[in-house]
Amino acid sequence: MEQFDPRQVKHRDAQELAQGYSKGIRRFEIACIALFAVAVTVQAIRMVRPAMENPWLMVAAFAAGYLFADFVSGFVHWLADTWGSVDMPIIGKALLRPFREHHVDQKAIIHHDFIETNGNNCGICVPAGLAALFVPLEDPLVFFLMAWLLWSMIWVMGTNQFHKWAHMDRPPGWVAVLQKLHLVLPPEHHQIHHTPPYATHYCITTGWLNRPLAAIRFFRVLEWIVTTTTGVIPRADDLGVRAALAVQEAVAVKPVAVPADERKAPAPRP
Fold this sequence. Notes:
By secondary structure, the protein is an all-alpha fold. 63% of the residues lie in helices and 0% in strands. It has one domain (8-255).
């Protein structure tokens, strides 16, 4: 078996990917942020009374939404890293391009403004958020589910901001405290994702679920199912076919190695 060589990885040109951020994409992101703000504000106002009647359900929804957002961040991150092409219409430019650009230039994200950082995640949340406005909240179980959805949306929206902070050399002091407590994504934890073969630790809200998902080989099993049923090679568009096959072989044989002490994770790629 040929051993995986990180030098086989050939990402697309960074300048080419950066040019994919068009005026049309920015208008789309602005619209998504506006709709997200409307949906969250209206739903929060609707929940004031039932939340006062069921405070512990709201607390439980807060925690469950935080954990679920970490899973969603990992699943979407894996999808965007692994499948599809930046040349696809709409999805390729709006969703996949930022992930692929980030592989080439980790620091590009810290130069994104609020709209470019958070527009995509708002767009993911908007359909569910608008639909939830028409759901009655009288039943406690329904209230919990809608509160869980509301908090999940809020944390999903914040995920790219947490991710951005994890790549900053000097984040604000209060952010550094949250990172140290692992309440948001810590930089040393996330750096594992940027270590060859770049196929683990996809969760970027808090990163809490990265180790459990890696232990059960969750994403590797999904990749095996997709490749077996469709013949599509994971990461082929992002890395090139040869490197993608090498990564696939490397991660299929044994789990991706993770440093025992995350504080000693490898330095960022140049």
